[in-house]
Amino acid sequence: MNEKYDVIVIGAGAAGLMCSFEAGKRGKKVCLLEHSSKIAEKIRISGGGRCNFTNLFSTDSNFISNNKHFCKSAFSKYTQDDFIKLVKNHKIEFYEKKLGQLFCTKSAKDIIEMLITECKNQKVEIYINTKIENLAKKENSYLVKTDKGPISSSSIVIATGGLSIPKIGASDFGYKIAEKFNLKVTKLEPALVPLIFERDILDFCKSLAGVSLNASVSINKISFDEGLIFTHKGLSGPSILQISSYWNKNCAIKINLLPQQDINVLLKERRISTPKQILSNILSDYLPNKLALAICNKLQINKKIGDSSNKDIQKVSDFVNNWTITPSGTEGYKTAEVTLGGIDTKEISSSTMECKSHPGLYFIGEVLDVTGHLGGHNFQWAWSSGFVAGQNV
Ligand SMILES: Cc1cc2nc3c(=O)[nH]c(=O)nc-3n(C[C@H](O)[C@H](O)[C@H](O)COP(=O)(O)OP(=O)(O)OC[C@H]3O[C@@H](n4cnc5c(N)ncnc54)[C@H](O)[C@@H]3O)c2cc1C
């Protein structure tokens, strides 16, 4: 470890690696510090081990932030096409799974290797297992005290990510630094996270654990139409993870278990065409068998459709097309994919990622108050914000 660098980057995740080699390309002497024994662990576990590394249709509308416009500048400077070009240059095979989501064909490790190779090409010095004991500003430089010795630089980049999955290295380091430099941090919450329930809804979900279907899940006017899965604690799956980013305590969510069809109309038709059929059997033409039966048992209506009143049919259709339930909470940072909120974007220049009140101090990636939807958007933010800082440090 040398004593002086042009740039010190803290956090060897997606954003930190991108920023490091981009700064290196500009001839900067870069030191990248990581406190864990492995770098980019979140990339490794992402996308079920295949890393959904970007999204073809990523725009600012896929992000949640107190300032919706903040991410626009970085996205215009480094787009998904730029990252795809990099992936292609490294001959990494990938495919579109659905909805513009690009995944590695083989393994997320391909992306990690690519980023490490790019860093090596630019002679970025990477130090793992390195604890940062103190960070201070002295005149025009930043002094970092590590357990391997003191180092300094004129630019310092905080790329320590959010709070999710602490067991693979997540820490509150970035937020603590913000506090130290008197920067505002917005409210932090686990997001893209399964929802949990209590009492009868929990029992209902538990009895169906493992059953999955396509569902539309909404809070007010925000709605996601994707997969849903019942779990032993409540509900998960893409549509639930997406809506969790908009959920506040005590707020109800509406679930349409059959988004493409009006079950009320269908059941009334079946009352005429197949009057002897049992309600749960009819429902299982449209929903998984186990769910169809569980709904009828829960409502205590499981008779021949010909004997079902309009009121019975309405009860069933309210459940199927408009199931309104209130989660008791989320599974928390242990399973959340991201942290909602972060360093207030008012503190940061959107075109450089530099802190307005502390020249030379940069924040990139998830540690900022920019949170993407599920589907490769969070990595695209890490690449774009990392790139932008890399051009300016
Ligand atoms: C299970 C899971 C699956 C995901 N799948 C996807 C996906 O497929 N697509 C997608 O777009 N997003 C996905 N995400 C979200 C995505 O991983 C993150 O948004 C992204 O990694 C954020 O990048 P980052 O560089 O800001 O932070 P990170 O990638 O989290 O990197 C931060 C780094 O800083 C290090 N660090 C933390 N504290 C310190 C400290 N005090 N000192 C030194 N180093 C420190 C950490 O160990 C880590 O290496 C997933 C997240 C999870 C948890």
Could you explain the architecture of this structure?
With 393 residues, the chain is an alpha+beta fold. The protein has helices at residues 14-25, 41-45, 72-77, 80-89, 109-121, 173-180, 199-207, 238-244, 263-273, 279-283, 289-299, 310-321, 377-392, and strands spanning 4-10, 30-33, 52-55, 63-64, 94-96, 101-104, 125-127, 132-138, 141-146, 149-158, 189-191, 195-196, 212-219, 222-230, 234-236, 253-256, 323-325, 329-330, 338-340, 361-363, 371-372. A hairpin with a 2-residue loop joins strand 8 (132-138) and strand 9. It has two domains: 4-189 and 337-392, 3-Layer(bba) Sandwich (FAD/NAD(P)-binding domain), CATH 3.50.50; 195-330, Translation factors (Elongation Factor Tu (Ef-tu), domain 3, Beta Barrel), CATH 2.40.30.10. It is 32% helix and 23% strand. The chain contains 13 helices and 21 strands. It binds flavin-adenine dinucleotide. Flavin-adenine dinucleotide is lined by residues 10-16, 33-36, 39, 41-42, 45-47, 51-52, 132, 159-161, 164-165, 169, 171, 173, 337-338, 365-367, 376-379, 382. Flavin-adenine dinucleotide binds at residues 10-16, 33-36, 39, 41-42, 45-47, 51-52, 132, 159-161, 164-165, 169, 171, 173, 337-338, 365-367, 376-379, 382.
